[in-house]
Amino acid sequence: ESSMWSLARSWLDECFQGHNKCSAPQSPDFSPTRLVEIVDSTTFRVIECRSIKTSQRYVAFSHCWGEVETLKLLKVNKPRLETGISISELPQSYREAIDACIRLNFKFIWIDSLCIIQDSTDDWRAESATMMHVYGNALLTIAAAAAAESSESSLAHRDPLNI
């Protein structure tokens, strides 16, 4: 498994170092309002991007919410999420995306349910208007295509002989 992540890292390094189009953000002046900072292998926190001095490169995560209620950013829990909480509180597909970020040496990930205040119409309106920039400026997007719910694994099991 570690050789798979090493290979993926080498492909990304080649892409970012050898392809000008890959290494440059689509909108250099754009920064998401919030990102999830991966503090370490067990902890994350939500940060306001304007609170950090430089523009941070990040990964975006695309997923299906599904019916199962999961942790999300709300007005009432915003201070707690900004302080930092255990990655174990997240649904499985989020944990897998964060694990991929750790293995690929990325510190920041954008996850809609954690980066948009879900019970704020104003925040939703403002953030949905910038969604194309969020995904367009991400270093890469992880798509949880195999999961119908955030609580499910996003990793599809495939027979390598059928690839």
TrEMBL record:
Domain Heterokaryon incompatibility, chain residue ranges per copy: 58-157
Listed Pfam families: HET
Protein name: Heterokaryon incompatibility domain-containing protein
